Amino acid sequence: MSLVPRVNLRRTFLIARRDYLGYVKTWGFWISFLLPFLFGGFGFFMAQADLDFSPPQYVTVLDTTGEHEARLMDLHAERKDDRAQGVMSGKAFFIQDKAKRAEFNRVLRSEGTVAAQAYLKENVPGVRTEFEMPEDKFKFVPPPASSLEGLVPYLLGEKMISVDGQPTELGGAVIFKKGESRAQPQTEYWSTNVNKVDVPDLLDVYLRRMARVTYLETQGLSVAELDRRVDTAPEAVLFNPTKVDDADQGVDSSDTVPFIVAGVLAFFLWLTVFSGAYMLLTSMLEEKLNKLLEMMLATTRFSEIILGKLLGVAALTLSMMAPYIIVGIGGVVAYIFFGPDQDVVKGLVSAFSAKMIIFLIIYLILGYVLYGAFFIALGSLSSSMQDAQTLTTPILFVLMACLIVIPMGVTDPDSPMLRIATFIPFSAPFAAIVRLPSDPPLWELLLSTAFLTLLCIGTIAMAGRIFRFGVLSGAGAEVVVAWFKRVVLRRKA
Q1: What's the rounded Cα separation, in Å, for the pair 373 and 172?
Q2: Which residues lie below 8 Å from residue 487, measured CB to CB, with a gap of 6+?
Q3: 385-427, pLDDT tens digit by residue?
Q4: Is there a contact between 368 and 269 (Cβ–Cβ < 8 Å)?
Q5: Is the Cβ–Cβ distance between 174 and 60 less than 8 Å?
């Protein structure tokens, strides 16, 4: 008897086509297919509409000491300027020359956004210098009353303040009272919205700064000089001794981008395997409950049904992922040809190497076959959706556990745990992909592939037997439990 089951390609193709078209003709498939484009268009519309769903909170300050209100306003303006610098720092992404990019960052840190804009105009004319100032989450307004008792009706919404001639609710009130010392005033914040912590956070920063200023001044030191020295302090420079194609062996975006790309591809692989395997389960369970499998077995072999379902759902999964694949490939190609940061371009080119593409395809096929065979077998044993969920819970836990290796590969690609996961067939597809940018030995990848292939062959053989047993005898989970008690636990029926 041949070890390889006989398969009629025409019947296998008909089963695959039936499973594929059965899903493609549904509304749910096309909704899922068009979702990326719908969300993309919606996001573009919202960006162009410039709608404000979170208007700023209006806060007043009642300073009975006369010392802290002005300083608090200065700190608020300073933090707003820091946010503006954070937005402006994104302009460095469009400066290709490393020396000019470093000088731009230095000017931005030491001289501010206005000087940085002037530097861009003079030295990098191709980069737009305009940028939008971040919106305030809260704004200070003059106090409508001179005491806390007078402010309470405004805080409760019983009275309104006037902002630009429009009646507006008062969101909060900051109260400064004399404390134990000048650096430690008694500070209170009154508001009915206890979930908004932006103002309390600003007050905490202010009080800590006041404590520092008071201490340094008593020691005869200047806070401004300390801040200047901290802002102009040099930054650490990273080097990689394994870089032989770079004269200075410095680390830049071209070294980190491949690990990010590998993490994204590994997650895409996991999502494809998970969605495809789960669709196999639901397809198998639906046809078993509707007695369609018994009708198919009259003219079709078990091996043809399993292979046909694997091929049909695989084609369906790739069709559902097609929008994401198209958008991803289009974005990467566009950035490679038109991207301003050549380090990122170099990293993208090195990330999509021949080794990455080959092993991505190999692990995609083997991972899908492995988990798909498990779900086909469990689906044939199930007699209801609740039954199927109970049986597949262990496999779902395994799949969820495999997600751990993806962020680990991005942040710590040399982790021994990640290397061990490469040789465990259940996690091998994801662990091996995220390890590829660190250039693991080829024998490790081949050995991992061999282990995964052997387990796939064994799983398919086991799935065929379970499928035949579950369909012909109508067995369910209770039969598996009875077998486990009889054979493993040695209990009599």
Answers
A1: 60
A2: none
A3: 677 777 777 888 888 888 888 888 888 888 888 899 999 989 9
A4: no
A5: yes
d(CA 437, CA 352): 10
DSSP alpha helices (H): ranges in 339-415? 342-351, 354-381, 385-402, 405-411
**The predicted structure's pLDDT at residue 473:** 55
β-partners of residue 176 are 63, 187
Confidence at residue 491, expressed as pLDDT on a 0 to 100 scale: 66
- The whole-angstrom separation of Cα 36 and Cα 32 is 8
The residue type of 186 is Q
- The number of residues in the chain equals 493
Beta strands 138-141 and 57-63 are parallel
SS3 at position 239: strand
Closest of 31, 58, 471 to residue 293, by C-alpha:
471
- Alpha-carbon distance of 38 to 27, in angstroms, equals 15
Residue 195's closest CA among 57, 53, 52?
Answer: 57
pLDDT digits 0-9 by tens, 196-232: 888 899 899 888 888 888 888 777 887 777 777 777 7
Cα→Cα distances 220→68, 212, 213, 217, 223, Å = 22, 12, 10, 5, 10
Question: What pLDDT, in 10s, does the model give residues 306-360?
Answer: 778 888 888 888 888 888 888 888 888 888 887 767 777 888 888 888 888 999 8
Q: Is residue 165 left, alpha or beta, with left meaning phi > 0 and alpha meaning psi from -120 to 50?
A: left
Q: Which helix (H) or strand (E) holds 62?
A: strand 57-63
User: CA-CA distance, 79 to 198, in Å (whole number)?
Assistant: 12
> Nearest to residue 279, comparing CAs of 324, 319, 321, 310?
310
In angstroms, rounded to a whole number, what is the distance separating the alpha carbons of residues 459 and 425? 11
Q: What's the N-to-C CA distance of the chain in angstroms?
A: 35
